[in-house]
Specification:
Blueprint lengths: L2 H23 L2 E3 L24 E3 L21 E5 L2 E5 L7 E6 L7 H11 L18 E2 L3 E3 L2 E7 L5 H13 L4 E5 L2
Parallel strand pairs: 4-9
Antiparallel strand pairs: 1-2, 3-4, 5-8, 5-9, 6-8, 7-8
Helix pairs in contact: 2-3
């Protein structure tokens, strides 16, 4: 199995959970971005990044956003890839809750990471729905937190395609990560 096929299988667990929830809740809005009263996306944290929720029931103006957590994840043997000389270690993770650990010393300019997020977030809601009603967007990324020898952050890839994951790895290589790990939190 190649990396894209593996990522598709990991992603499909999350997409299936979103589809099942949409059926269970009835008419709903899938993957809406959180916005202010004027309809502008609302950012938070040090990087000022917005987020999307999984779904909101469409028939209730007072409805609270619904978070869909996948109950399972794909089991696979840890694997190590090389991306431009940077080891990338992949352990089992969930598409909606992936912990990234990067080894990197010194001060980091997080612009490539924020740029990656904005590209895949689709703040202008220009993406078309696919056959499942999904937008192919990332939902959330936490601010990077210092760890011993690097940083960690969590990503909810939402319904974004495998290319989104691969683009994130490229952004982390651009940040001069010395090693990248992805796993369950």
């Amino acid at each position: 199995m190649d990396i894209t096929e593996l990522l598709n299988r990991i992603r499909q667990i999350n997409v299936d959970a979103l589809k099942d929830a949409a059926v269970a809740y009835g008419p709903c809005i899938l993957e809406p971005a959180l916005c202010d009263d004027e309809g502008n996306v609302v950012g938070d944290g040090d990087l000022g990044l917005p987020c999307r929720v999984d779904l909101v029931p469409a028939d209730d103006d007072e409805a609270e956003p619904i978070t869909v957590d996948t109950e399972t994840h794909l089991e696979f043997e840890a694997l190590e890839l090389d991306c431009e000389g940077v080891p990338v270690i992949m352990r089992p993770f969930s598409w909606d809750n992936a912990l990234f650990l990067i080894q990197r010393n010194g001060v980091v300019d997080w612009a490539p990471l924020a740029d990656w997020f904005w590209q895949w977030f689709d703040a202008e809601s220009e993406n078309s729905e696919d056959e499942d009603g999904m937008l192919g967007v990332v939902h959330f990324m936490s601010d990077p937190e210092p760890t011993d020898g690097g940083y960690s952050f969590v990503v909810d890839f939402g319904s974004a395609p495998p290319e989104c994951f691969l683009d994130l790895i490229d952004a982390l290589v651009d940040l001069q990560a010395e090693q990248i790990e992805v796993q369950l939190p």
